[in-house]
């Protein structure tokens, strides 16, 4: 009996040790990713003197909202925040609608010979060039058609970068959904399009949600194209506007951090909205065997 | 309900011939089983009927109408898939209702029909549950209910029982057969399970390599196989085959000679005899003597396998048979119930 308990004891010790190491590693990873965000939040409430003071001040004695007021009231960055939102939402919507249809076609139908593989590869190949390479051609293109300094130019450019990504993500998901369900729907009297709308797309909801987040982030975070293609206050995006707070003479850390806090909010809200759909396994129990 | 006619149906995938010049007629109200090993083209045949695959050549008629080029929705058929293909995001009720919803029937009428279908397959208590919360047998019933809710020209079933456990399979087999009889529904049923085929079918079409090997009632398939493939595929344990020659109606093979099994003289024949048409005899009167390879007691009988030539020969012996491996036994077979096949063409040699 004693031997049994001591053996058990030893096993438990190993288990605790291993678990605590895992938790330690996870803790370090969390600190590494979350501390900069916390630092940003703290800084956004600090006066300038507190931001650059040594020894380091974490939470200021006199928290202030001046940074927020400066960014959004005095400088009116609401407009650029709105631009960013409009662009990101439009790009996400367009890419998802077109990308989902394209992906469904590529996942479900066979075209003559290997044509399908070639189309898929061609779509993917557009992502193989770094976006910066296309910068100058895009600039010339948009300036020729008179689209510089418009939101439309950014929407077109971002959709171009986003679509291949959406197509490939969704293509993978659609291939995973067993095709018998749609076939059954068609035998039951539905059209191919109806089977897609009523069967395949509801089942792909988790994937659509995940793709939507990535797509939104891609255009929300983009800085380089936005910086070059739109230079007026009316068409600038939020990241570009915040960039102007780094001037020749000084860097407005407080304002940049306040802007940063606001910039991450839409993403967090979006993640909360769709996280319910992010749980996979909806298609479990549909197909046995 | 309607009859179905296959006229010269062929289907090729690239160089692979899945179905080769199939001609078949399914009568109104008939239960036809397509039976064959996997890859024999039976599922492809069914999918062509449903309109999920397009035939490379030929034409299919449902009733008097050709369905060539028709979308599945215009063919007026209902189908159960091997995987059941239930819609996982819909409740049982919505699953059963789906075909009617697509046809835009009024809600009250739909409700009534769903209830009737659910009652028929004993699913009323499960209507608000999701497919994944159901057992395999219940999922199967949902698929059946979805089939029964319409009144189509033709029912298709693609190995509907293969995912069920053995006990449930026997139960559902009887249930499907009974429903088919009660509703008089024309049914094409695909399976690789010969027991299912034998027990359920009005007629069986045994398929191999895209060709129907034999089309007949179950009894004839079993008692009068047309060729080596059908003879070997039907029956469990399978038929014994002995290669040899025929001289004046007497068969002689490696270690065996049997008198008066057929007529004439010819070389390269295969003699087939089912295990139940053989016996172990004491003393003389056996056709050959061989050492025991294995003994399997199944309860009602004892299966004895013996070495014969390079192969194994199965005998269905009495359940009281007692023998140890390697002991020599005398085997007698019923020469009246032996079949002869040409070993080159694999076709039956009829006396």
Structural description of this entry:
The complex is a heterodimer of chains A (289) and B (351). Chain A starts with a helix and ends in an 11-residue tail after the last helix. In chain A, helix 3 crosses helix 13, helix 4 packs across helix 10 and helix 8 (180-187) packs antiparallel against helix 9. Chain A has two domains: 2-33; 73-283, Orthogonal Bundle (MetI-like fold). Helices cover 73% and strands 0% of the residues of chain A. Chain A has helices at residues 2-44, 48-52, 66-74, 78-108, 115-125, 135-144, 151-176, 180-187, 192-203, 205-221, 224-229, 238-243, 253-278. Chain B has helices spanning 42-50, 92-102, 107-120, 136-148, 166-183, 194-200, 218-223, 228-233, and strands at residues 4-13, 16-26, 31-35, 57-62, 65-66, 77-80, 154-158, 187-191, 203-208, 211-216, 240-247, 250-253, 256-258, 266-273, 278-281, 288-297, 302-308, 311-317, 328-333, 339-342. In chain B, the strands form four sheets. A six-stranded mixed β-sheet of chain B has the order 6-7-8-3-9-10, with helices on both faces. In chain B, helix 5 links the parallel strand 7 (154-158) and strand 8. The longest helix of chain B has 18 residues, at 166-183. Chain B starts with a strand and ends in a 9-residue tail after the last strand. The mean pLDDT of chain B is 90. The chains are: A mainly alpha (289), B alpha+beta (351). Chain A binds chain B through residues 178, 180-181, 183-191, 194, 199, 202-203, 282-289, and chain B through 50-52, 71-73, 75, 77-79, 81-89, 98-99, 102-103, 130-134, 136, 139, 146, 150, 156, 162-163.
